[in-house]
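Continuing the batch. This is chain 6 of the set; chains 1 through 5 are on the previous pages. Same settings as before, nothing changed between runs. Recording input and output for traceability.
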Amino acid sequence: MEKLVLSGSGGKWLLFSNGVLGHTLYVLAAVKKLKEIYPDAFVTMVVDKGSAELVRANPLIDKVSIFDRKLDPLARQWELIREWRREKYDVSIHFRSGVRNELLAMLSGVKMRSGNNLKGSFQFLNRIFQDKKGVHVLENRSFFMSNVLGREVALSEPELHHDPEARKEVAASLKECGIEPGSYVVLHPAGKTSGGLKWSLEHWAGVAAKVAASRPVVVVCAPFEREKVREAISGQNIFHLEGSTAFLSELIAGCGWFMGNDSSPGHMAAIWQKPRVVVYSNGPDEFIKWSPLYPEQCRVVLKEEFVADGLDESLEWLFSM
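Output for chain 6:
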């Protein structure tokens, strides 16, 4: 394997994770390992706008670049190329696959561009590896980083860091709603990757009503889901709060329990080690990939079980926690 050639004692690293938030959460584990091996490394993380505030709260990340591959025009891309050329990065790590990211890294003069093979596609990488299938995303990230760094590494569970401004925003929102910190349940009833709007809202509406009889339920969702979620889930002691991903993270960090579909808020709840009930809907392969961290604090329910039998037993377990 080609040896890494780094400037200075730690080198300059450009990490691409401008895509699904759940994947970005696990990239944070790779950043932690990278900084353990190269304490003086300068790390820039490329994310989309939705993940930026959450990533900025991580003290191990020196700089955040925002790039949305679907929305940002050519002018923004040339701006990034000029910026990254000035930084003179040694290595780019492409956690988010895509020829556009690879091309920008090449045009920016990054010397060593590392990523996984895109079947049937021309790539602008000079270090291409094979993805590991049929394993948890954390094991896959460990395998990938071992290839990138040329040494065996095992990633620990990802960590989230508190954002002071987002904490203030959450505290103000809870106070306005008359909700005591730690007393509420966070519900995420949708989720793009789980097809939540297509099947789950009516089922979660019934669950929310049961829980709200004894404690506040705070409902969260993505902006494009809000209208339908608000229409489906409402009632006394049910609140809809919205904000940045940092706001969402702090809201989950301060809750007593979490319930929802398998998606990024559920993974945030796992990282914050919250007792939780999570509904999985995408089959055994996806469950292997995204099975919960800290499983002793999680009750897993399959979509078919949820639709047929509800969550009474799981909720009893959750509140016993």
